[in-house]
Design brief:
Strand order of the largest sheet: 1-2
Number of strands: 2
Order of helices and strands: EHHEHH
Helix content: 40-55%
Length: 112
Protein backbone atom coordinates (compact mmCIF):
# COMPACT_ATOMS: atom_id res chain seq x y z
CA UNK A 1 0.00 0.00 0.00
CA UNK A 2 1.29 3.49 -0.81
CA UNK A 3 0.63 6.87 0.71
CA UNK A 4 0.50 8.50 -2.72
CA UNK A 5 -2.26 11.07 -3.07
CA UNK A 6 -5.12 10.16 -5.39
CA UNK A 7 -4.71 11.08 -9.04
CA UNK A 8 -6.32 14.41 -9.89
CA UNK A 9 -8.80 14.46 -12.73
CA UNK A 10 -10.18 17.73 -14.05
CA UNK A 11 -13.89 18.00 -14.62
CA UNK A 12 -15.23 20.79 -16.86
CA UNK A 13 -17.59 22.91 -14.77
CA UNK A 14 -20.04 25.54 -15.96
CA UNK A 15 -22.08 28.16 -14.17
CA UNK A 16 -25.82 28.30 -14.69
CA UNK A 17 -25.45 31.82 -16.10
CA UNK A 18 -22.75 30.82 -18.62
CA UNK A 19 -24.23 27.52 -19.78
CA UNK A 20 -26.43 28.81 -22.64
CA UNK A 21 -23.56 30.93 -23.98
CA UNK A 22 -21.10 28.05 -23.70
CA UNK A 23 -23.45 25.71 -25.55
CA UNK A 24 -23.73 28.27 -28.33
CA UNK A 25 -19.93 28.63 -28.50
CA UNK A 26 -19.27 24.88 -28.81
CA UNK A 27 -19.11 23.32 -32.24
CA UNK A 28 -20.35 20.06 -30.70
CA UNK A 29 -23.20 21.61 -28.72
CA UNK A 30 -25.38 18.65 -29.71
CA UNK A 31 -23.22 16.54 -27.36
CA UNK A 32 -23.96 18.80 -24.37
CA UNK A 33 -27.12 18.48 -22.31
CA UNK A 34 -29.87 20.80 -23.54
CA UNK A 35 -30.34 22.41 -20.12
CA UNK A 36 -28.06 23.38 -17.26
CA UNK A 37 -30.00 21.20 -14.83
CA UNK A 38 -29.59 18.13 -17.05
CA UNK A 39 -25.88 18.88 -17.45
CA UNK A 40 -25.46 19.41 -13.69
CA UNK A 41 -27.09 16.08 -12.82
CA UNK A 42 -24.79 14.28 -15.25
CA UNK A 43 -21.68 16.18 -14.09
CA UNK A 44 -22.39 15.47 -10.42
CA UNK A 45 -22.90 11.78 -11.26
CA UNK A 46 -19.57 11.68 -13.13
CA UNK A 47 -17.90 13.42 -10.21
CA UNK A 48 -19.30 10.87 -7.74
CA UNK A 49 -18.24 7.93 -9.92
CA UNK A 50 -14.72 9.33 -10.11
CA UNK A 51 -14.54 9.82 -6.36
CA UNK A 52 -15.82 6.31 -5.75
CA UNK A 53 -13.00 5.08 -8.00
CA UNK A 54 -10.52 6.86 -5.70
CA UNK A 55 -9.80 9.84 -7.92
CA UNK A 56 -9.46 13.42 -6.71
CA UNK A 57 -12.03 15.16 -8.89
CA UNK A 58 -11.17 18.79 -9.63
CA UNK A 59 -13.91 21.12 -10.81
CA UNK A 60 -12.53 23.57 -13.35
CA UNK A 61 -14.91 26.31 -14.35
CA UNK A 62 -14.95 27.07 -18.04
CA UNK A 63 -15.73 30.73 -18.62
CA UNK A 64 -16.89 31.46 -22.19
CA UNK A 65 -14.57 34.37 -23.05
CA UNK A 66 -11.46 32.79 -21.51
CA UNK A 67 -12.14 29.46 -23.23
CA UNK A 68 -12.81 31.11 -26.60
CA UNK A 69 -9.54 33.09 -26.31
CA UNK A 70 -7.61 29.96 -25.36
CA UNK A 71 -9.05 28.03 -28.32
CA UNK A 72 -8.16 30.87 -30.68
CA UNK A 73 -4.61 31.08 -29.31
CA UNK A 74 -4.15 27.31 -29.68
CA UNK A 75 -5.84 27.16 -33.08
CA UNK A 76 -8.45 24.72 -31.76
CA UNK A 77 -12.12 24.35 -32.53
CA UNK A 78 -14.20 24.83 -29.35
CA UNK A 79 -15.38 21.26 -28.84
CA UNK A 80 -15.12 18.31 -26.47
CA UNK A 81 -11.47 17.66 -27.28
CA UNK A 82 -10.58 21.28 -26.60
CA UNK A 83 -12.57 21.24 -23.34
CA UNK A 84 -10.69 18.16 -22.14
CA UNK A 85 -7.31 19.64 -23.10
CA UNK A 86 -8.13 23.00 -21.51
CA UNK A 87 -9.25 21.43 -18.25
CA UNK A 88 -6.28 19.04 -18.12
CA UNK A 89 -3.85 21.89 -18.77
CA UNK A 90 -5.35 24.04 -16.04
CA UNK A 91 -5.62 21.15 -13.59
CA UNK A 92 -1.96 20.28 -14.06
CA UNK A 93 -0.86 23.91 -13.87
CA UNK A 94 -2.74 25.05 -10.85
CA UNK A 95 -3.79 22.74 -8.04
CA UNK A 96 -5.52 25.74 -6.43
CA UNK A 97 -8.37 25.26 -8.91
CA UNK A 98 -9.42 22.20 -6.95
CA UNK A 99 -12.50 22.56 -4.80
CA UNK A 100 -14.50 20.21 -2.69
CA UNK A 101 -18.25 20.00 -3.16
CA UNK A 102 -19.37 23.62 -2.85
CA UNK A 103 -22.91 24.38 -1.82
CA UNK A 104 -23.32 26.77 -4.75
CA UNK A 105 -22.29 24.27 -7.43
CA UNK A 106 -19.83 26.80 -8.78
CA UNK A 107 -16.12 26.42 -9.32
CA UNK A 108 -13.24 28.81 -9.63
CA UNK A 109 -12.79 30.51 -12.96
CA UNK A 110 -9.65 29.40 -14.73
CA UNK A 111 -7.32 32.10 -15.99
CA UNK A 112 -5.05 30.50 -18.59
Amino acid sequence: MTDAPPRKVGLPWYSREDYPRLRELMSDRHKLAPTYDAWLASAENNENVGRQAGLAMVRVRIEPDAFARWCQEKGLEPNGGARVTYVAELTARDAALAIERPDSGSAPTAKP
